[in-house]
Amino acid sequence: MPNPANHIPALVLRSPLHRILSARYLLLEFTGRKTSRTFRAPVAYVLDHAHRIVLTTDSPWWRNFTAPAPVRLWLRGRVVAGTATAMADPNQTAAALRRLVDAIPSYARPAGLARDTHRHVSDAEIARAVAAGRVGIDIDVPESR
């Protein structure tokens, strides 16, 4: 069932007003592996090289990427195709989550990460989130090369 809280960000990311969100969020569109339904989710991301995007999630939709799968992204006002793959290595997920929190400090809260008194997210907190089920996703976007 779609999350109603995602409706407004999804509309903004597909509109000419995308600049409000698109430096930190993209709209990910994929096909469910069991249902064949199309799903869209606004997600926080970081660019890791010119052709690779990294994100994390604790939502079960990551299972659609246990094997490489095609996706469509609304990325900074452009629609691009890519291939998404879930990170099998928890250390890769921890590194992706660290990059996201460092690049987008406000991501800590929706990711369920506690901060210390200096508003820093510890490596132990990152490891806890990964152990609790947060998974990293790599998206290769060859068009952006």
Give a structural overview:
The chain is α+β, with helices and mostly antiparallel strands and 145 residues long. It is 21% helix and 30% strand. It contains 3 helices and 7 strands. The protein has helices spanning 7-13, 90-103, 123-131, and strands spanning 25-31, 38-44, 46-47, 52-57, 69-75, 78-86, 135-140. A 7-stranded antiparallel sheet has the order 2-1-5-6-7-4-3. α2 packs across α3. It is globular. The chain starts with 6 loop residues before the first helix and ends in a 5-residue tail after the last strand. The mean pLDDT is 88.
Rounded to an integer in angstroms, the radius of gyration calculated over CA atoms is 15 Å
Order of helices and strands: HEEEEEEHHE
Helix share, percent: 10-25%
- Rounded mean pLDDT is 88
Low-confidence stretches: none
Report the sheet with the most strands, covering strand number, pairing sense and barrel closure: 7 strands, antiparallel
Overall spatial form: globular
How many H/I helical runs? 3
Tell how many strands the DSSP assignment holds: 7
Q: Which percent band covers the strand fraction?
A: 25-35%
**Broad structural category:** alpha+beta
Strand order, main sheet: write it out: 2-1-5-6-7-4-3
Kindly, what is the distance between the CA atoms of the first and last residues, rounded to a whole number of angstroms?
35 Å
